[in-house]
Amino acid sequence: MRSTASIRLSCSALATNSTPQRCLLRRIRTQQGAAAQELQLIRQERDALQRERDLLMHQVTMLHTMHQTTQQQMLHEMQHRDDRLLEAPRQPAAAPVVPASRATPQRRGADLKASGQAFDSTRHVLGRLCPRAHEYQGTGQSLQRLPSHVCFACDAAHTRERRKAKRGGAQ
User: Which of 17, 83, 149, 155 has the most CB atoms less than 10 A away?
Assistant: First the structure.
């Protein structure tokens, strides 16, 4: 068997004497250098992936904790609300409001005055005082048409003005 020193000596002697062998040694050294660089890049990528995984695990843990805290807060609020409802004095239930059906005839004119109702609530409503200050029976509000919520008196005045302008323009 040859010793490692004699092999080195023979390889170095071969390397100095022949060019194909020199090229082969250079190629081997180049491949070793490239392999070492690739190994280093792989290790760096592995380390980066491990850091990213650790960060994601930390975020998952935080989200899980936040979820549990939110659930506990909601449960506490619901229990508190239930306790308040149980402690509150009970009030008698109000009679259910039954909407007027379309099958019943709508009251108009004399029927409304006979019943004591001042306006048809299915067609009119009291609302904010209009810009022309048409106040309905001292309520401080204007009578408005449904569904447009236009002041009844303003609408009538506008119609009169429009008709008057139309008659004046035709003459």
Answer: 155
Q: What's the whole-number mean pLDDT along residues 82-97? A: 74
Contact between residue 136 and residue 126 where contact means Cβ atoms under 8 Å apart: yes
Helix, strand and coil content of the chain, in percent to the nearest 5, comes to 65, 5, 30
Question: Which pair of tokens denotes residue 108?
Answer: 């108009």
Instruction: Compute how many other C-beta atoms are within 10 angstroms of the C-beta atom of residue 136.
Output: 20
- Confidence at residue 103, expressed as pLDDT on a 0 to 100 scale: 47
**Entry field: residues in the chain:** 171
Find residue 151's DSSP bridge partners.
144
Rounded distance, CA 117 to CA 119, Å?
Answer: 6
Classify residue 96 by its DSSP letter.
Answer: P
Q: Are 153 and 134 in contact (CB under 8 A)?
A: yes
| pLDDT, average across residues 27-32 | 86
The phi, psi pair for 144, rounded to 5°, reads -120, 145
119-165 residue pLDDT tens: 777 888 888 888 888 888 888 888 888 888 888 888 888 899 999 99
CA distance 15 to 21: 6
